[in-house]
Amino acid sequence: MNLIFEESHKGHRCTEFPKIDLPVYQLKSKLRSAPAELPEVSECELIRHYTKASEYTFGVDSGFYPLGSCTMKYNPKVNEATASFAGFTDVHPLQPESTVQGCLEVMYELKENLKEITGMDEFGLQPSAGAHGEFTGMCLIKTYHESRNDLKRKKIIVPDSAHGTNPASAHMCGFDVISIPSVNGIVDLKELDAVLDDTTAGLMLTNPNTLGLYDSGILDITKKVHEAGGLCYYDGANLNAIMGISRPGDMGFDIVHLNLHKTFSTPHGGGGPGAGAVGCKEFLSSFLPAPIVEKYHDRYMLTVPEHSIGKVRTFHGNFSVLIRALTYLMILGREGVKETSMNAVLNANYLMSLLNDVYPSAYNAACMHEFVLSLEKMKQQTGVTALDIAKRMIDYEMHPPTMYFPMIVHEALMFEPTETESIDTLKHVSDVMHCIYEEARNSNPDLSQAPYTTEYSRPDEVSAARHTILKYEHH
User: Fold this and answer.
1) pTM of the model
2) Farthest CA pair distance, the chain
């Protein structure tokens, strides 16, 4: 498919602007040295181009999208309607507080809901992504220890089953990252004891973890870290499994970030928009990014915590995502939130049971919202890799699951069907996966060349990443 620039024809226009009947103001600086090279297309050509482009795009509205850990869940369309209200879209973040009371109420009610769901005492809504929330959480830990003049605490402990951004977020705050191995997919308490000391700043963990397993020893884990003087940070990427059932605050965590754009709907394909709200216990609330929303009598105000780490984003975060998250929560209600998690766990275990006869799970245990398969044996027997299986799923109009992650599982495929998929869909997925299994065994077709139905089969992603082309060059 051509780029819109390649569809350009000199003199084609979408619209004609009226002639200017006012004096023309000439800018005296910051002018282009040459006119902008914009495509020239008619309205018909423009509509056809982007309609065709949309037909190449696969999303959760198109079909099965089991992207594990990323929780690419269905986004109810009522959220879009709510976020489009003029009272939300026609405001400016620099308006006086008295003129945006409705917007501030949205933010306040959202954080109150999140406090209840997580067991935290306060929330900041500024961070614009999950990893951004991680970084903010690490800033809170660092600032807390510095406020106590406990400057020797430079070590953040991260299990090998953690999300890939955890070590990077800790490094960005100047911490030394200590990775500890898992045993049977969960934290090895002996390994944890071996690295805990008075230089421990904190622990980064999610429960259930990236393998989809709930760590029943979580109270022992957080207790050990606290006894060593460290803080416990909860990566909320997997909260989809435990909403309304188990709270990070009750597990002993001091800080949590939530992916509002995943756990509480909102589509987040293509890198955004996102929202990585950060919550904490009372003793850390004075360090939260400024401002936060407070309620005084019947008015809502923006306040600055006493020892705030400052802003981590312009203005107040991705506000439209906050609207969608609150809409999602208000429609579900307390029982609906709990049922969402229960259905997510049920769907994952059901699909895992359907696949286990030919695709063995990495760990022989009940999963939570997601599960990890190991195709190492298949690769040894047939030469077909996890990548080949994932690519072949595209031919059956399904988005591939997460591949080769976590790295502690060889030839890994991670499925997260989420709570909205029906039993009929899951059975169909199982049928397709069994069909692909037979194709792998019989080498018919050659799965190393899949997918066969797309315009491009296997683009060179490494070269594309290393040699990016960010500007269209007209030839």
Assistant:
1) 0.92
2) 79
Go through 245-255 and write b for each residue having 16 or more CB atoms within 10 A of its CB, e for each that does not: ebbbbebbbbb
pLDDT in tens, 228-286: 999 999 999 999 999 999 999 999 999 999 999 989 988 766 666 889 999 999 999 99
Q: Domain for residue 191, yes or no?
A: yes
Nearest to 382 by CA among 439, 457, 435: 439
Residue 192 inside a domain? The answer is yes
Listed residue (237, 280, 288) closest to 255, CA to CA: 280
Please spell the DSSP secondary structure of 252-321, one letter per residue.
T-SEEEEEHHHHT----GGG----EEEEE-GGGGGGSPSPEEEEETTEEEEE--TT----SSSTTS-HHH
Q: Please name the residue that has the structure tokens 């005084």.
A: 296
Domain containing residue 11: 1-57
If one counts the domains in the chain, the total is 3
> What pLDDT, in 10s, does the model give residues 284-326?
999 999 999 999 999 999 999 999 999 999 999 999 999 999 9
278 and 144 both lie in a single domain: yes
CATH code at position 457: 3.90.1150.10
Tell me the C-alpha distance between 160 and 167, whole Å. 10
Strand bridging mode 176-180 / 155-159: parallel
